[in-house]
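User: I'm curious what two different proteins look like when written out as structure tokens. Can you demonstrate?

Assistant: Sure. I'll show them one after the other, since each token string lines up with its own sequence. Here's the first protein:
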Amino acid sequence: RTERETILRLGFVDQLTQLQNRRAYDLELEKIPQEGKFPIAFILADVDGLKLANDAFSHDTGDLLLQRVANVLRDVSDSGDLLARVGGDEFLVLMHQTTQELAEDRVHQIDSKLREEKVGHMTISLSTGIALLETGDMDPALAYRRAERRMYRQKLTESPKRKKLIIETLLSVQHKNYPRVKIHSEHVSMLCGKLSRMLELSENDTETMRRAGLYHDLGKIAMDQTILEKPSSLNEHEWYDVKRHSEVGYNILRSVPEYYDIAETVLHHHERWDGDGYPKGLGGNDIPLYSRMLSICDAYDAMVGTKPYATAKGKSEALQEIMKYRGSQFDPDLATLFVTMMSREIS
């Protein structure tokens, strides 16, 4: 009997969060007319940035994000409330014999508690919607849909802002913890601006290139951070981790419309003219122009900048390296233009 009860109980529990699951909620709906604990508040909540966490870091990070949300819901809820995970990133709170004001207060409590939480460097926030089931004559499914509509309306307006804040926070944390990455990114941004002006790009396009330079290494936030400061050669596993950073950066940046214009540039900035780069092995003019520009600016500053694993090259020596690899690693025309530009500056 105990084993059967355990199996039945597990059938109504979400294994990741240990909250009730969708099946438990459906069962609760059947009880609502008989129990008569009206009004009932339906609070639906959708986790902002779950896909960003999964794409940029790992599904383990996303799972931890969901568990933190579940813990906060438990902490601020009353014993008679139903707490359920009803979708991949959606949660439901049912409050019995309550009011709209009390439901709104509960949402404020949840938001306030979540502001104290972080998963890694990520802040946690929810998009929420509230609907009240006043009497047993009303359809509970209608109240659920009303709360869901309000939740999605908030998500449409607030989620991009919150994701942008997450991205800005990630960049700030990366630059604070790793000043070498900050200096390199700022230098690359400046070089991208100079090369853009040499190509007579518009001011908008020049600014896009500056932003791409500043954010090009954002994906390294998801790396094992000891690799960034490792003084010796990387092993195969570490090198694989490094090669992921352009894809991770792309996944982070493409999650917010404001960064769409630089996401692809960041994705392809380690492609090579001869097709031996990563992540897609593109070659020649198949590599986006801005990525080819960023590749040269990044490589040059990496050579002249300080780093734990090699001695910095002089500027003239670095320019010779750019010329040496024009037509193999770098776009030959852009490489020549960059070297001409920097040679004038040095002289």
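Here's a second, unrelated protein for contrast:
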Amino acid sequence: MEAKPQQAQRAAAGGRSLLDLDADLGALLSDERREAARRELHVRVTTFPVGEWDGTRLADADPTHLGLLVVEGVLAREVILGDTVSTELLGPGDIFRPWHIEGPPELLPVAVRWNALSTLRLGLIDRRAAAAIGRYPEVSAVIVDRLSERAQRLSITQAISQLNRVDRRLQALFWHLAERWGRVARDGIAVPLVLSHRLIGELVGARRPTVSTALAELARDGQLLRRDDGTWLLTGEPVDVPAGAAAEVIRQRRRLMPTPAEPATAAVAIAEPAGERMGELQASLHAARAITLQHRRDFDTIRAETSALRERTLQLRSRRADHLERLHDAAAARGPSSN
């Protein structure tokens, strides 16, 4: 009876509760399992100051460690290719791995550097924590969803960088950032990120002088303003999504890779005695029925669990929809700026 308190004490001594650091990781857990996960899942947390963060020190980390969780702050990941820098912003809830199983790319040499844009707190989800998370597939599902969301944000940023005017890129970028970091303010949507013109250029694929000119034009039009503290304020309308014929710029390719011709094979009929064949069919039928009944029971169990998870997922989507609706309502209430 004393093993569990001692185990909890040892875990607490080894770090902070993962769900205390990031409660949303337990969004799909029932109340009982959430409390158990809060006691069992612990990570070590380290704080880093503003400035360059040397992620290369972790290049030889144990590849079975799951990754690093951004607990607090904003981290810029800069990929350097030739004389061009492309930047990705990581914030609270993001999970990333500065180490790779296969190492860096060899055919296309790139360099990666990291910069903490604010005081940074990272939690190490090591192999011990990863093994404990394995007992909670609900938490694993949220982690995979976080990785999928990060990939989605990267694809959106890539699409933004291909817009044909820099001012359109900047508008799209800041509304994209507002969806995650935006806060409703008295005179618009506040984006509480201190981003220099150079860094913004690295986010949208443009040079700093071009970015400065486009930002000045957006400020004059009352679309985007830089506040006294260096953060940003969206005062215009969200970027419209093209509809109808305008949305169909390039048709999706029907086939990306050629399909090799499959060699034709002739079916060979093998004659078998009718009695033996009938006995085999009956035995196979009985076995199939037994398997079907077991699958049906398993399916009923999975369906019940899925229904509970679906209900929690709908609640999360509703909270996200309410947040986005507040942002849109604030933008609509602000209306076109008279500046």
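A detail about the second structure: The mean pLDDT is 83.
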